[in-house]
Amino acid sequence: FTASGIRECISFDDETVVLDTALGLLTLKGERLHIINFDTKTGDISIEGKFHAIVYTAQKSGGSFFGKIFK
After folding, report:
1. Nearest Cα to 46, choosing from 33, 56, 55, 59?
2. pTM of the entire structure?
3. What tens digit of pLDDT does each residue of 9-45 get?
């Protein structure tokens, strides 16, 4: 698995990797996961292992002006 635009690796172990991107969190679940390369300057990451799930959770947007007023 390779990805770009990664700001930070929040946590990782051999079953779960949680990455912070500009648009939200990216969570990878599987077995024997290993980060092969993570370039913090470019935001490129390479991970190997057996993947069971890749979940993207978008950041909540601030919403429109009227959406904030009429909650």
Report:
1. 33
2. 0.79
3. 999 999 999 999 988 999 999 999 999 999 999 999 9
Closest to 12 in 3D by CA, of 36, 28, 25:
28
Of residues 23 and 68, more confidence is placed in: 23
Q: What are phi and psi of 19, to 5 degrees?
A: -120, 140
Q: What letter represents residue 47's amino acid?
A: I
Q: How far is Cα 6 from Cα 17, in angstroms, rounded to an integer? A: 12
Which residues neighbour 42 within 8 Å (Cβ) at sequence distance 6 or greater?
A: 4
Give CA separation, 39 vs 2, 5, 30, 43, 44, in Å.
12, 10, 22, 6, 5
